[in-house]
Amino acid sequence: MPIVELHVLEGYGPDEKRRLGEALTDAVRMVVPAAPEAITVMIHEMQEDDYYRGRSRRKPAPALPDPCELVRTYLEAMERRQIEAAKALLGDGFTMYFPGTGGMTKLEELLEWAAPRYRFVKKTYEGFDAAQTEGDASVVYCRGTLSGEWPDGTAFSGIRFVDRFEITDGRIVRQDVWNDIAETKAQA
Amino acid sequence: MPIVELHVLEGYGPDEKRRLGEALTDAVRMVVPAAPEAITVMIHEMQEDDYYRGRSRRKPAPALPDPCELVRTYLEAMERRQIEAAKALLGDGFTMYFPGTGGMTKLEELLEWAAPRYRFVKKTYEGFDAAQTEGDASVVYCRGTLSGEWPDGTAFSGIRFVDRFEITDGRIVRQDVWNDIAETKAQA
Amino acid sequence: MPIVELHVLEGYGPDEKRRLGEALTDAVRMVVPAAPEAITVMIHEMQEDDYYRGRSRRKPAPALPDPCELVRTYLEAMERRQIEAAKALLGDGFTMYFPGTGGMTKLEELLEWAAPRYRFVKKTYEGFDAAQTEGDASVVYCRGTLSGEWPDGTAFSGIRFVDRFEITDGRIVRQDVWNDIAETKAQA
Amino acid sequence: MPIVELHVLEGYGPDEKRRLGEALTDAVRMVVPAAPEAITVMIHEMQEDDYYRGRSRRKPAPALPDPCELVRTYLEAMERRQIEAAKALLGDGFTMYFPGTGGMTKLEELLEWAAPRYRFVKKTYEGFDAAQTEGDASVVYCRGTLSGEWPDGTAFSGIRFVDRFEITDGRIVRQDVWNDIAETKAQA
Amino acid sequence: MPIVELHVLEGYGPDEKRRLGEALTDAVRMVVPAAPEAITVMIHEMQEDDYYRGRSRRKPAPALPDPCELVRTYLEAMERRQIEAAKALLGDGFTMYFPGTGGMTKLEELLEWAAPRYRFVKKTYEGFDAAQTEGDASVVYCRGTLSGEWPDGTAFSGIRFVDRFEITDGRIVRQDVWNDIAETKAQA
Amino acid sequence: MPIVELHVLEGYGPDEKRRLGEALTDAVRMVVPAAPEAITVMIHEMQEDDYYRGRSRRKPAPALPDPCELVRTYLEAMERRQIEAAKALLGDGFTMYFPGTGGMTKLEELLEWAAPRYRFVKKTYEGFDAAQTEGDASVVYCRGTLSGEWPDGTAFSGIRFVDRFEITDGRIVRQDVWNDIAETKAQA
């Protein structure tokens, strides 16, 4: 049965409302085992002059970008070595952690670190999971397998990976990477 | 401003309502950059005789367990080698994937696999993230560091890990594990 | 999708709320071709001190009886010739119209009229239909077949009938009767 | 006091909303003896991108025709012997029952049956009552008096009738007719 | 927390809605000591064909003028001796009471009464307070200080005053005036 | 038509809800000229575990006292010279202004000031008006006539007065008094 009603200031587009409709449905389903068909979401948009908080009208804040899309865009830019495009998606204090590294704050550091490890690497995605933290950050996990070439030119593929991203104010502020590269090499 | 109203059949306890209140707040915040203080959730419980779908009354389904709590309970049981308690939390078709393994379906397989790798291992948690998939499964990620003893008795600690769990109908049906054990060994 | 919410003063019982839930569902379905499963009714009961009209609290009016039940009770009393019980269900100005009669206002008139026509008659119901008029009256139609004995003692059965009742303030104020008795006799 | 709120997908016209407003008011009045003035109906139209069931947007189904209007149109067509126009309003499995007939499925059968009974007949309406069944069918009763000419050319009038119609998916699927023609002839 | 929702027929402008938003916020705050920031007002405008009372559509009544603005306009007209403009704002039965006068019903009476008392007088406003009575009248109090010239041409200023106005149907029907003129003269 | 819905945390008593019902009705009527009978207020009380702001439950704040009652209690205490009881109703920074006085902060000052002016004074109330300011203060005006005895023992009566009170956090913080005492003496 659950019925969710969202009252929100006018100004969100169809895609943003779809994301709200899906996220609210999912939020209910994490607690209530209702079939999706039995969960209704209604979004009630309020015009600015129909809404008052503290006797004052408010402006709607622009929607945050879809965090999964943001991560996908970033990963594609990195895969193509479009470093400037990738940097544009990073927020202040961005830090990344790869297997065996400490925190790296510059994409150039990563490239340098990767150079002796593989000629190139491509991600095949198995899925994305997104969640909102208690704080301001959204979290995105993407997982799948890596393929590419070792420094000696031999190919590899099917190596499991998972990346975790924290996104604040529409920018990536943290990336954590785990994968089976070392395990694969150890078994080789 | 966003105000969320949830209409749901009576029968959920304070803790389950708190989970709903938090999940609905978080769902909104993934799209709308409102301060938490500006997001209100109201839960309207409906008595059974006040709600009709298709001219019929409905029974509320019991709440699903908190997936993070479920995972935490499972991981603690495994750490203490309480295999039966852990098994009770697994659903049909449970499969787990560890670095370098294919899918394993029995906890005993895991113990056998782990035996030559470490004497024991403990998890220190840095955080849990939970999300609902489009389907019936909830997903929980837990991450942190591993400590324990290698087979030769030397201690290790601070090895990053992340586990991903899929939970359906209140049971764990899949576990994926990534960590830096191989990387650590390779660097040693 | 349609979702109906009814706000009503506290004081109606489960059966009365079920009747409201069904009537509201049916009202929607007369216009919107939604599957019953897709129509939700929520009844929100208001306590007396939570509701103000014109700055004043109000008392809930006792529910009207189910008009179909009322008619059924009346017809059963008549069939058993429990005239006083039947009379107790009639309102001021009660008038009834049978095939070939003008308006009759007393049940005794009816008995007198029927005496030369049949020894007794029983109704087998095929169905009831109830509707609310624009005015205060509810209308109930009941239809089915008549069986009984003619004055000469021969049996009859399967004669179609339909009765229409108007009910105001929980009392029957008009009855119109149509049936195929004359047609049956003419064909005999 | 009762206040009814209907949430429905955008796409219904003023006349359809008026029918909903009236039907919902009437539904409440069949149970709660409130003065009409005290019953409020609010229709909240939802845009398609503001409504989600099972994470999906829905299309509004076109409104069903007003069943009383449909019946009136059918009866007028029949009175004018516009058989094709009348047929267009009939649904699959249409069956009609007149006094003394079994079920007839073709309008031509009816004309044949009526031919020896009257030259023509006209209906003067006293009222229509419409109700929704538990199933998909709406039911319409229309009642009044018949006038016309007997086969010998003599006129008749003032003969009571009632017709019951079942309408499914906007088409008439059943007609039941009762009247006092036989009674009138018997008394003549 | 308090959240106020107002459902009202479409037809009120932004300024009228702002007045509603403020008045509803203030109404809550007179009872509930919530910070203004914690009080939300949502105005839901209903189109005419989405609202039914007693099965009928209704027309929205034009908004009443802001009573404080009305009083301010009246007082300014009086100060400038624009008697006709002031009269246009008075309703039937208008009566005014000044210190030591009985009820006066014509503005000319007031001018005559004032003539021997001061050459002219100006109001400096410290504030307006408006309230709705249980009946149809709104009440406005305005207070501040008077300055002007005595009949002998000497100036005065800083004399406290308060005026109370009753406004019905957008017209002033009563004015009560208190001030310290007599006290000031007595002390002089 | 206007319908007001108030959602508020559970914890307010029947009298406090009546005050809310009246104040919300009055707030609407100051803008919309609807008959009181056409204005509905519904109060929806939320249990603490059904309401979340910023992911957190909230406690309802105790209701503010009825400001008119507070003023009436204060004025009665003053009339009976129950100074301590009156003081208990005053807030920090309390200041009062009487005709010809500057601001007085102690009730004893007032008594001293009054001593040479009248032996005693009683208030006959004609009415109270209450309003909420934009800020935290409620404002109450009470008006009527004064009666009592002059210092020489002669009686007076029928002298108009109006008092304005500001109340913050349930305590009186300011009193402004106007009356016709000086005018009356001047005319004597």
Automatic annotation (TrEMBL), chains A, B, C, D, E, F:
Residues 2-54 form the 4-oxalocrotonate tautomerase-like domain. The keyword Nucleus does not apply. Coiled coil: none annotated. It comes from the Bacteria. Keywords: Isomerase. The keyword Isomerase applies. InterPro entries: 4-OT-like_dom, NTF2-like_dom_sf, SnoaL-like, Tautomerase/MIF_sf. One of its GO terms (molecular function) is isomerase activity. Residues 71-174 form the SnoaL-like domain. Pfam families: SnoaL_2, Tautomerase. This is Tautomerase family protein.
